[in-house]
Amino acid sequence: MSDNAIIERARRFLDVLRHCQLLGMTVHDADSRGLTLRLPYSTQIIGNPETGVIHGGAITTLMDTTCGISTVCVLPNFEVCPTLDLRIDYMHPAQPNKDVYGFAECYRVTPHVIFTRGYAYQDDPNEPIAHVVGSFMRMGKPGAGKAGAQ
């Protein structure tokens, strides 16, 4: 699949997630290696009004969504893949008034589970805000039943 097709599939996936629409998330980049989403800074996601630091829940949402949508980068057809497990290790708070980017890649694909890893960052991917690992259950193509994941 071409990089343009992967980007389009990732955009369509993101566009149906209402909470991501409300947060203003967009696809920054996507190819067969992985996906990067952008979470724009806004006053609605501030966790500490005194410092302007983004709430950890917004970062968690960004990374869960990024890992989940990264499955479209490796699967030949769209499949429903809900989160089984997600672990996020926070390195430091995000700086106020700056967008946050989330990158995720699928590092192992089995017939039943897809394993992902990634990180959140602002200016430099080499200085991550957080690291994430997640696993996602393959449920197959929509309408294909259990045999669709085979």
From TrEMBL:
It holds the Pfam family 4HBT. Coiled coil: none annotated. The keyword Hydrolase applies. Keywords: Hydrolase. Residues 52-127 form the Thioesterase domain. The keyword Cell membrane does not apply. CDD domains: PaaI_thioesterase. Signal peptide: none annotated. It comes from the Bacteria. InterPro entries: HotDog_dom_sf, PAAI_dom, Thioestr_dom. PANTHER family: 1,4-DIHYDROXY-2-NAPHTHOYL-COA THIOESTERASE 1, BLR7284 PROTEIN. This is PaaI family thioesterase. It comes from Zestomonas insulae.
